[in-house]
């Protein structure tokens, strides 16, 4: 059956957390508090649904977003304006089935209307060659490396910092500036649930 990519719903956060923490060493672990921060603050937080179940998710932040990742800060220090993919997770039983490519097509369609560069990182450890090949096939190139500091959950892990120029951005800005026209097919920013971040530990 087809893959449906859509905004996450609050009642799905437990399932998202389970997907993340079952993904293996290539994905940083999450706890419910941090996931709630993502839910409250991420500009892009979408899930993939197939055969009636969640099979993955992707979280992203614009360069002006409220995000405390050291990798995000690294990109802020090196780029003026960008869209940052914090993480993409695909359920192990669905890897190789097109879910990751569906996510990247969707997030690029969103980002290229608003940002000139798409940014992400891949850890250089934990058999990263498949992830590097995947990103290379989408046109990402390495622009540096960053060792995550002790404030992160995976301190000392080296990350390959990747970017992809979004060729549509200049044309969109030249013709529409910041005021995109209304069209049903245009991907829209999600409506962050700010209320969810006001509870304990948010």
UniProtKB/TrEMBL annotation:
Region (Disordered), start-end ranges: 183-202
Pfam assignment, any one: Acetyltransf_1
InterPro entries from the UniProt entry: Acyl_CoA_acyltransferase (IPR016181), GNAT_dom (IPR000182), UCP028520 (IPR016890)
Entry superkingdom: Bacteria
Chain ranges of the N-acetyltransferase domain: 3-164
SUPFAM superfamilies hit by this protein: Acyl-CoA N-acyltransferases (Nat)
Identification of the protein by name: GNAT family N-acetyltransferase
């Amino acid at each position: 059956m087809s893959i449906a990519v859509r905004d996450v719903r609050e009642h799905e956060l437990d399932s998202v957390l389970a997907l993340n923490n079952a993904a293996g060493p290539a994905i940083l672990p999450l706890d419910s508090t941090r996931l709630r921060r993502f839910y409250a603050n991420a500009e892009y937080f979408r899930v993939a649904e197939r055969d009636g179940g969640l099979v993955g998710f992707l979280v992203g932040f614009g360069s002006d977003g409220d995000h405390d990742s050291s990798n995000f800060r690294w990109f802020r220090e090196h780029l003026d304006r960008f869209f940052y993919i914090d993480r993409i997770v695909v359920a192990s039983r669905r890897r190789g089935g097109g879910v990751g490519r569906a996510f990247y097509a969707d997030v690029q369609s969103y980002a290229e209307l608003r940002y000139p560069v798409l940014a992400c990182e891949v850890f250089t450890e934990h058999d990263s060659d498949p992830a590097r090949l995947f990103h290379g096939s989408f046109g990402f190139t390495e622009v540096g490396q960053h060792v995550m500091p002790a404030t992160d959950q995976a301190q000392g892990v080296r990350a390959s910092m990747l970017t992809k120029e979004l060729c549509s951005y200049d044309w969109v800005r030249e013709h529409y500036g910041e005021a995109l026209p209304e069209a049903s097919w245009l991907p829209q920013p999600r409506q962050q649930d700010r209320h969810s971040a006001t509870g304990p530990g948010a």
